[in-house]
Amino acid sequence: MAHFKEVSQQSGLHPKPAGLVLQYGTAGFRTSANQLDHIMFRMGLLATLRSKKTKATIGVMVTASHNPEEDNGVKLIDPMGEMLTSSWEGYGTQLANTEQEDLLTTLKDIVEKEAIDMSHEASVFVGKDTRSSSPSLSQAVLDGIKALGGHSKDYGLVTTPQLHYMVCCQNTQGKYGEATLEGYYSKLSQAFSQLAKNASNRTDDQKHLCVDGANGIGAVKVRELESHLKKDLQLSIFNDGSRGKLNHQCGADFVKVQQKPPIGIKINPGDRCCSFDGDADRIVYYYTDSKGHFHLLDGDKIATLISSFLKELLNEAGLDLKIAVVQTAYANGSSTHYLENTMKVIVRCTKTGVKHLHHAAQEFDIGVYFEANGHGTVLFSRGAEGKIQQLAADTNINDERKKAALLLQNTINIINQTVGDAISDMLLIEAILAIKGMTVQQWDTIYSDLPNRQLKVKVSDRRVIETTDAERRAVTPAGLQDAINDLVKKYKQARSFVRPSGTEDVVRVYAEADTQENADALAHEVSLAVY
Ligand code: NG1
Ligand code: ZN
């Protein structure tokens, strides 16, 4: 096979350091950028095979999200814009770790196992974030695609969710939208402007939002969006990459974990602010009050705002659709309590990692899923979308039902259903606050978070910890869960769990309790039990 010969020649230009072992984890490969050249070339090969197998366009995004600038990473996007199916993650790991001389054998094994017709055309979309290592690494991906005879389209600098969107648009023949940046901005901004028409008499202050771009791609892209927004939303963009370092003391992950504002942003009491992460698939909101206290509105608060808005609209529209909120163990206990007991919506808890939440959300008519760290979106089933479209087009219903149906229709259009998207989530949140005439402080008071703390613990082998019950209980090593249970009993309203990270070589410890001191103390004590 001519292509295999080409792979053999080209792979020599992207050699694997002997002995290096890496794994396709929760978010693809992610590590120090200087170890990734061969991984990128090989992921170009894998994406080409996946495209031949699915007979659809596949995406490859070069990014390490919220990791430091020195790192990089790569993740594959499946035909409907979702994450690569788990059964292929193993091939990713195999290809990554096979030594140079065995590469062709591994490649041919995958072709055989998956019965891939190599004569079929392949099409792969490639995108990258703003890291200094991204241009050469994305070139390595393009080289891999070319070596196997695939066609590639290089979108250059895009956010992760933008690339997911392009892949979905391409494979649905434009039904989801146009596979261009212009198409993305116009779909979202038009939906926003339709929604914003339902807000009355907003002052300039109410239209104003401070955005922390984490010195990354999100800042570049939100600026491009700005020109499409007219005067409906006024953005002040900070950490736009012109001075600071990517993700350094800024961005959604920093703000969420440190529970404080990013550097590089000047905020006055009451100002509504949000932070994106390094590839703009996460968003958190925050403000400081008149006493200078910092208030965070994380993924849980976002899920609550969005699901209560949708639930109200469904009632007004008279549509009987099943709505659920999907969370992980990191969701604040107060949010789960509020959703289940006050809002009375179904709540599901899944393992960490967006693909788990995404799959759980697909089981409902409307599935709102958010990780506490701000990664999330809303999924509408085909049936639910159909009913909403039908009602919006119905001329025999009263004004209230009509208005609710149109709001639901525009809400569908503003959401990027392929994956969590900071830009799309931001527009939806801004639209909801505007329509409800709600300030960020009012949103914050829907429920009060239990004080909580997240810690990282370095251990020699994090894989000795195995968990069950959506990662809420440790089954190994023996005795660890009993020790955690005993510590939790010492505190009020307390909860704690540990799990190995899928993206860093650490064990994560989470604790919540009635006061910050107690949450801190519990997290500390549990981290000692992990050693
Ligand atoms: P790990 O490192 O497995 O905890 C982190 C986040 C996930 C997810 C992935 C991918 C936390 C506690 N964990 O995973 O939610 O976003 O990164 O980016 O925030
Ligand atoms: Zn990210």
From TrEMBL:
The lineage of its organism: Eukaryota, Metazoa, Chordata, Craniata, Vertebrata. Its cofactor is Mg(2+). Binds 1 Mg(2+) ion per subunit. InterPro entries: A-D-PHexomutase_a/b/a-I, A-D-PHexomutase_a/b/a-I/II/III, A-D-PHexomutase_C, A-D-PHexomutase_C_sf, A-D-PHexomutase_CS, AMG1_II, AMG1_III, PAGM. Its EC number is 5.4.2.3. It is an enzyme of class 5 (isomerase). This is Phosphoacetylglucosamine mutase. The keyword Cell membrane does not apply. Residues 179-284, 298-437 form the Phosphoacetylglucosamine mutase AMG1 domain. Pathway: Nucleotide-sugar biosynthesis; UDP-N-acetyl-alpha-D-glucosamine biosynthesis; N-acetyl-alpha-D-glucosamine 1-phosphate from alpha-D-glucosamine 6-phosphate (route I): step 2/2. Pfam families: AMG1_II, AMG1_III, PGM_PMM_I, PGM_PMM_IV. Gene3D superfamilies: Alpha-D-Glucose-1,6-Bisphosphate, subunit A, domain 3 (3.40.120.10), Alpha-D-phosphohexomutase, C-terminal domain (3.30.310.50). Substrate binds at residues 371-373, 499-503, 508. Keywords: Acetylation, Carbohydrate metabolism, Isomerase, Magnesium, Metal-binding, Phosphoprotein.
